[in-house]
Amino acid sequence: MAGSTVRNERRSRRLTSWAVRTTASAGVAALALTACGSTKHSGAADASGGGSGKVGVILPLLTSPFWQSYNDYVPKMAKSEGVEALKTVNSNSDPSQQITDINNQLNQGVKGLVVAPLDSAAIAAGLDQAERKGVPVVAVDVAPEKGKVAMVVRADNEAYGEKACQYLGKQIPSGKVVQIMGDLASVNGRDRSEAFRACVKKNFPKLKVLEIPAKWESDTAASKLDTLLNANPDLKGIYMQAGGVYLAPTLQTLKSKGMLKTAGQAGHITIVSNDGIPQEFDAIRKGEIDATVSQPADAYAKYGMYYIKAAMQGKTFKPGPTDHDSTIVKLANGILEDQLPAPLVTKDNVDDAKLWGNTVK
User: For the purposes of burial, counting CB atoms within 10 Å of the CB of 194, is it exposed (0-12), middle (13-18) or buried (19 or more)?
Assistant: First the structure.
């Protein structure tokens, strides 16, 4: 997800890969904040009492430790940002349910919505409903293919794949590596997969990339990894695109085959993950995995609340650097995305107190 879309049995259509980012204008030196009085949202902002009103928060799932942490952060960050957030709603990995959840929240009279989309394309139906009612939406973790959102709060998922590639490539001179992919109906799954694949091809031609489409499903990951290891017992590296759902099944599968060797042992399989959950940090300390990219669950909650409050007040933003070490970019479909930093975590910095994975129980 973090990690964060799941099975949608009806989404067999092939999605186009639109998430090509444009760079911020060279002339932009700082984040620009301006009034948005000429937009359709200005009326909604006035109706909400100058940016006040209840905000609905819709989660994709709660079976991943990453989303459990995000869920815990939401009320804390809502309070710190002065947002009246309703109790979160869990769409239980069902994109159709998520559209129903959006409609239910709109019928309750919310003045803003913070949504973590399950499906980059399917979410458009919910976004259209919100726009018709003049309710601004902030998307967290996943950018929609189309539809109106005030901001996408997300880390650079292409950088996730690039960082994983660079780490594995420097540790493994040659041989087979596998990426356990997310759902390719999600821009997150596509970005991570395509970036990893392209980076290996360009920089580490002696590596052979194998792939497991696991759709953010732990059972699927375990089953397909087991089959792959039977045919490829000489595997040298693994890239897990979501530690929250893939860490436990991957380690269990390796252990069951006698292939779980700690770092430094002969036969150790180098493993890089994505999420930055406490369980990954513990696995790094034990030498079971080697690195992860820390997806900022705390900042997702904080800036989700920050941007929905701004949108309810009728404010808008422009591409450029922010005051919180990120950059707002304009996506190919015209949507703005605040790309939050997501550092690589290894044994060298796993105990850094600034990492959110070291601050949760």
Answer: middle
Residues 356-361: contacts with CB under 8 Å, at least 24 apart: 356/69, 356/276, 356/294, 356/296, 356/297, 356/298, 356/299, 357/276, 357/277, 357/278, 357/280, 357/281, 357/294, 358/278, 358/281, 359/298, 360/69, 360/72, 360/278
Handedness of CA 17, 23, 25, 31 (dihedral sign): positive
Residues 6+ apart with CB under 8 A from 214: 180, 181, 182, 220, 221, 224, 246
pLDDT per position as a tens digit, 41-64: 333 333 334 568 999 999 999 999
CA dihedral 95, 98, 103, 107 (to 10 degrees): 170
**pLDDT tens digits for 301-360?**
999 999 999 999 999 999 999 999 999 999 999 999 999 999 999 999 999 999 999 998
Sign of CA dihedral 218, 221, 224, 228: negative
How many Å apart are CA 183 and CA 250, to the nearest integer?
17
Arithmetic mean of pLDDT, 174-186: 94
CB 118 within 8 A of CB 95: yes
CA distance 204 to 225: 23
Distance from C-alpha of 246 to C-alpha of 280, rounded to nearest angstrom? 10
In the 8-state DSSP scheme, what is residue 173?
S
Q: CA distances (Å), 25 to each of 199, 319, 320, in order?
A: 25, 7, 7
CA 285, 289, 291, 294 dihedral sign is: negative
- pTM for this predicted structure: 0.82
